[in-house]
Amino acid sequence: MSAKKIIKHAMPVSLSPSLSPSLSQRERGAESRCASTTLDTLSCPAPAKLNLFLHVVGRREDGYHLLQTLFRLIDFSDTLHFTLREDGVVRRISELEGVAQEQDLCVRAARLLQQECGCPLGADIAVEKRIPMGGGLGGGSSDAATTLLALNRLWNLGLSRARLMQMGLTLGADVPVFIFGENAFAEGVGEQLQAYAVPDAWYVVLFPPVHVATAQIFARPELTRNTNSLTIRALPMAQLHNDLQPVVCDLYPEVAWHLAWLGQFAEARMTGSGACVFAGFESAEQAQAVLSQLPLGMHGIVAHGLPHHPLRDFAAT
């Protein structure tokens, strides 16, 4: 599960939740270019992520937990469709069960982009959901990141990656990694990112039929909160795990069952706060062979690890 090669020249990117984004001179110029786009529609993927490990290394005075994790992007994605509007209206035109439009991260991301840039354009947004909600795969965060990246292109804003990441952080701690565009070692609350070259791999990802509430897991008194911190150079030789996994397994026996079944074939681990679990394999054939043996009532997919986000070039450097 651990990566073998570090991108030594990559610079860490650190974002503070208290940092208020401000427009650079170049980005203020984007306001005047906003209406000049000739592009009318975009259809874009919003890939899922796996946490190849997740350690809780402390807790801040404000209650937020300090984490270390390794984000791996995979080719299992939602698809978002954007249609340009000239009237400034932003709306989701597809149904999403259990998510009101005003709470939808895509809508919130689009309106945030409008407000921060003073852009008079709008968009209709249709979301084709494949990534399960409450599964630890980052679907909502990825959708928000794709919205920021796609509208940066559709509205011809030309905003920098760092600027979009700052905006994304106000929407959720996992949003910046999808804008960052690379597999990444993350620290802090998950927003301090360093690019990390993860070996090519195929994953069996299983979907236990439960929705895990992240806040509930982090609030449990039995959660380990003092795992020793690692340096990025120590990762290939470190003993890695997910500190949230034992807590989730105690509360959700379905997650424990899926882990036990998958663990017959390779080291299995929960991603994020669950409920989804995964195991890595060297080839698609190996992963498909495992998936073909799923027992009745168990569901999953085979996904390939991505070297980078498919919309990596949608943000200015």
What is the overall silhouette? globular
**Which CATH top level class fits?**
Alpha Beta
Helical stretch tally: 9
Q: Give the biggest beta sheet.
A: 6 strands, mixed
What would you report as the Rg, rounded to the nearest angstrom?
19 Å
Distance between the termini: 30 Å
Average pLDDT, all residues: 89
> CATH fold name, please?
Ribosomal Protein S5, domain 2
Strand content: 15-25%
- State the share of residues found in helices, binned by percent: 25-40%
The quaternary structure here is single chain
Structural class: alpha+beta
CATH architect. name: 2-Layer Sandwich
**What count of domains describes the coordinates?**
1
Order of helices and strands: HEEEHEHHHEEEHHHEEHE
Number-wise, the strands total 10
Low-confidence stretches: 1-38
Outline the structure in words.
- The chain has helices at 25-33, 105-117, 139-154, 161-169, 175-180, 214-219, 245-251, 253-262, 284-291, and strands at 41-59, 65-85, 90-92, 122-128, 184-187, 192-195, 202-206, 268-270, 277-281, 300-304.
- By secondary structure, it is an alpha+beta fold.
- It has a single domain (1-317), classed as Ribosomal Protein S5, domain 2 (2-Layer Sandwich), CATH 3.30.230.
- Strands 1, 2, 3, 4, 5 and 6 form a six-stranded mixed sheet that branches. A four-stranded antiparallel sheet has the order 8-9-7-10, covered by helices on one side.
- Helix 2 (105-117) links the parallel strand 3 (90-92) and strand 4 (122-128).
- The longest helix is centred in the middle third of the chain and has 16 residues, at 139-154.
